Amino acid sequence: MYPLFYSLLIFSLCLSSCQSKRDDKIIRIATSTDISQLDPRKARSLPSLLVTNLLFEGLMKRDKEGHVQCGLCENVSLSEDKKTYRFFLKKNALWSNREPILASDFASTIKSILGKEGSSPNAHLLFIIKNAKSYYTESSDDLGVRVLDSHTLEIELEQPVSHFLELLSLPIFFPYKAPHIYSGPFCIKKHTSDTLVLEKNSAFSSASKNYPDTIIFQVTDENSALQMFETGEVDWIGSPLSILPLDAVPSLQQEKKLSIAPASGTSIMRVNCTRPYLQSKSFRKKLSQSIERSDLTEHVLCGDYTPSSRFVPHSLYPPPQSSSECTCNDASSLSLLCPSAEIYPKMAQVLQSQLKKNLSLDVHIELAESQIFYSRLQKGDFDLALSSWFGDFTSPLTFLEVFENISNGTNSTGWENSEYKTLLAKTRKSFDTNEREAFLHNAEELLLENSPVIPLYHYVYRYVKNKKCSHITLDPFGYFVFEESNANK
Amino acid sequence: MCILLFTIATLTFTFMKTIPGDPFQDEKNIPEECLKQLRQNFGLNDPLPIQYGRYIKNLFLFRLGPSLKYPSQTVNEIIGQNFLPSFLLGIEALCIALPLAFLFALLSSFFYRRPIDYLFKIIALLGISMPSFVIATLLQYIFAYRLSLFPIARFDTLSHSILPALTLAIGPMAILLRLIRAQILEVLNQPYILVAYSKGLSEQHIIFFHILKNVSLPIIHYLGPLITRILLGSFIVEKIFAIPGLGQWFVNGVLNRDYPLIGGLTLFYSMTLLFVHTGIDLLTMFLDPRIRKSVPA
């Protein structure tokens, strides 16, 4: 009897959770999935890009509005033909092992991506560099990357690209030396399948007291994450690395715990313009005009998102005007393909009822698991398809170039237009801001006039953070911005 | 055993190559030349017979190769790192399920058709009917969130493992409870039990030396697939309680079309199942003298 009692007592003492003392300089962030791809040459998903941005820095970096500024370089010069950039690197920039960051590091990284053993799915982003494509496919010489001296790098492009400096803020252009050597504000302390721990990189030249000492990313289910936030085990839940349970959003809105940040992303419905009944431009426009976007955002997404019929988020221009009646032969039924995960099935049902009510159109919903969805999208095996597009840099070009060519793997609509292509090509070559804005506006108008894509709403980042994270916000691309905290003032 | 593993490996390869979808496809664009290079680097451009031969050879050498989705890790490393949490959780769940199942079944049989019997029958029915995600969410909400007796999620200390182990244990405990109860009721009607009582043997002696011994044999055969299923992780329980186990890798491997991971994990699961079944057969032979005597020397 007594041995049993004492065993139970000792067992129950062991059960008490070991709550370590919470440090204000340790931030715990909930994520939905394991963040495993931390090589900047191969990062594709938002979680990988976000963490890579904390571990590495490139020639250019972004401010809190997403605009580029000098990162590892202190100065940039551009040749008269607008094709050759010369970067003068900071002399005090160090890797985490205290070795200096040199121009040769950038050159060797670019060559490793374009080499035969590169295995980077993002290698095509470097094809704007002179002879990069032939270096990649045929291993030819004379790549347009030159090391002039230890801290001077020259990059020559195939054609003038007005947004090249914005592209340099993407991780594909970051230098990479070796595993476990970092150039950014943080280093990896521990990485398992459910936890990623980052600690401050003491060798980082722009070290700021705004950065926390440690960031811990914990893989957690969305409902468990909300409960862990309530009990103080996690400091940040929701965007950009996890999703808030939709049922909990109204109560979080009422309690004013929800934080909102504008995102550079649009939810869209692609239209397969090769199908006979969808080839008519006016019918596609009619489809777009019959969708009640505010219904989607208010009732399915619980508000916060911005209903919009424009493709580019935060556009300065008003939405397009209604057109005249369509005299074409409409289809009587269409299929709507969407991924089976997240909010898409609910959105599909709402769209189905709206199109039935407004156009007497029967819409048949086809749910597909993600790999099958992308496969069908690529093959054009759909009538209408729900998806989204998030931009990589500030210029509207990151949205508009999706539909530039039929051969572009992300187009999938079978639509292209020579005037549209010309406008985008002119934008890339023009270094005059007003001229580029005019070209981009005209291109977007042309796209919306033809409606191979029907925009639905613009995304926002929805998250909940506690007081420890009051100085941390998100930029439009979902990257963390560390501002001056009250403790440091 | 080798022929069985070879057949399983071949069937897995066939299914992997038959299901639609590409491991490198997502919403962002990959031009054709980059896709071709990626597939070349992972050997996916080779003719199918060459891919099959390489796959069988690597499985035989247990050299499972890098994952397509996580190229910095080999499948061996993924299994090595993630097997232990699933295994420990499974052992804990079995340590809860088996004793409780035997205890409740004994009480239920000895108090046959009394209120306590009906109570345990209801418990068994609830345990079988309720899906694991409902049990997990209920336990988490009541004991972790409301009463703060246990942590909500993760796998850092012993107390973190109690709720997920309970969740994993309830379903098997309910099934075993019904199975053991039926066996005990059958054994209680046997003449040798009456003889044992009439000889004046104690209740404890009769339970441990006559009832449980004869009840154990059919139960052991059910334990084979149960042990393998529990030890190799449950996707739902691991997701809700944020356990870094093997269960999620089974599901994510298929969703990502990660061929080396699917092949490696299927082989690992099959080997574990065959190993456990062989162990169960040997244990049965050891426990049952009738089987020992029937096996030729």
Task: Give me a quick take on this structure.
Chain A has 14 helices and 19 strands.
Characteristics:
heterodimer, A: 489 residues, alpha+beta, 7-stranded mixed sheet, 4-stranded mixed sheet, 14 helices, 28% helix, 23% strand, disordered N terminus, B: 297 residues, mainly alpha
Describe this structure in words.
The complex is a heterodimer of chains A (489) and B (297). Chain A is an alpha+beta fold. Helix content of chain A is 28%, strand content 23%. In chain A, helix 13 runs antiparallel to helix 14 (433-450). Chain A is globular, with a radius of gyration of 25 Å. In chain B, helix 7 (158-188) packs across helix 9 (203-231) and helix 8 (191-198) crosses helix 9 (203-231). Chain B has helices at 2-18, 32-41, 48-60, 75-110, 115-129, 132-146, 158-188, 191-198, 203-231, 235-240, 247-255, 259-287, 289-294. Chain B is globular, with a radius of gyration of 24 Å. Chain B is mainly α and 297 residues long. At the A-B interface, helix 4, helix 6, helix 11 and strand 16 of A face helix 2, helix 4, helix 6 and helix 7 of B.
Q: Overall pLDDT of chain A, averaged?
A: 87
Low-pLDDT stretches of chain A: 1-21, 324-328
Number of E-state strands of chain B: 0
Report the total helices of chain B. Answer: 13
| Mass-distribution shape of chain B | globular
Compute the CA-based radius of gyration of chain B. Answer: 24 Å
Distance N terminus to C terminus of chain B? 22 Å
- Biggest interface, and residues per chain? A-B, 52 and 54 residues
Instruction: Report the sheet-strand fraction of chain A.
Output: 15-25%
Inertia-based shape of chain A: globular
Number of β-strand runs of chain A: 19
Helical stretch tally of chain A: 14
- Report the portion of residues of chain B in β strands: under 5%
Q: Structural class of chain B, please?
A: mainly alpha
What's the story with the biggest beta sheet of chain B?
Answer: none
Report on the biggest sheet of chain A. Answer: 7 strands, mixed
- Class by alpha and beta content of chain A: alpha+beta
- Report how far apart the termini of chain A are: 61 Å
